[in-house]
User: Fold this.
Amino acid sequence: MDKIIYNTLKDLSKKQIYPFHMPGHKRNDKFLNDFYDFINLDYTEIDETDNMHKPEGIIKKSKEMIANIFGAKDSYFLVNGSSGGIMATIMACVAPNEKILVAKNCHISVYNGIILSGAMPIYIEPTIKYNIPCGIDIKNIEKAIEKHKDIKALIITSPTYEGFVCDVEKIAKIVHKNGIILIVDEAHGAHFNFSNNFPKSGIKCGADIVIQSFHKTLPSFTQCGVLHLNGNLVDKNKLEKCLSIIQTTSPSYMFMLSIEYAADFCKNNLKLFNQYTLFLQDVRKDLKNLKNLKLIDKDILKDSNIVDFDISRFTFLINSPINGDYINNILKENKIQLEMYGNNHIIAISTICDDFDKITYFKNILFKIDNELENKNIIYDNINNENIVCPNILPREAFYNNKKLLKLDLCLDEICGDFITPYPPGIPILTPGQTITKEILKQINIYLKNNIKILGINENNEIYVISTT
Assistant:
């Protein structure tokens, strides 16, 4: 039998390319030795091991410990990743045909949850700065609530993929005044709890449900996350039932112990977090001297509806005629792998598990690249789109409707029948039921021109649209 996946991963590990990407443990065995004995710990549900869907023993004690560490009312293991938690949350909070207010820069799992629930999304756009989605204008949230008084929930992403944080505290007060549930996709912010040099977690800002991907920034296996529950607006029994529907009935105990390990490790290594964040501040101070790879820092806070940003995430604008693909290839030649590269920016993720000398090496390579780049002072328009948009038909209806394949350049004004999603980060440009506009087609073509992978477009540049025949 060919060990195709195994051999590929082993070959990758031999190349020793340093990961400035997920998972958060960075394959650094000094942070993982305590639970590396895989086979001997791979159990299923027996008398001594409890049941994740009705915990009464060790899993109950473990989730209570995690809730205590993060300051939540209750916490739940997510062995299908944050995506599973997001989908279960939407199903629990919004019934068929009920309205949910959705920040348009949400992950594809949000839209999958909307399809599963049969809910009607009301879309609000994030502010755009440097061509990057930023925060949500609170005035637009208020306007949407005024226009749609029967909204049941609001879901936002904070921090964003680039590390930008909304004013969750203020948003929570506004929506709670109107009896609306606040859901925060905090997948990229599980580390916030462990240093005052990071932004405040949505848990501490009054969100009702906060979903975190431990594997993105903590020493935990890929696919591991936690859902934190706060307040009394959410039906806890319904939430637990929806989690049982979405998640496997055979959860990996390796995943659960990995989640427990990450929480316990972070709680007991606050001094290391302090050293790490102080080191990051010094590195960022140096990186601000780059000329053509502009580190996004405090300057992002102005006119962006962002109140804070994550210093562990290195997001760079490219002030040069080349694109992110070009930078990524140079870095790979220097044994560095980015998390993401786009048309005009790149993202590198650092975590508590990084060796400081590797971050220094990354910094030095960036200065070398920067010196060789041609400067181009790119001027970007800030966009604060105040449109509040409902899809033409429910996403669930569009998902199950008859569809046809159509060439991309013939799709103007058609109704999309699929997700069109650049990956990473997995934020759809188009969702089922959405009208295809000239602006969206232009955006898709820019992605394609810059070699960004887009799910939902086939090799013939065709996408699915709703068939009217």
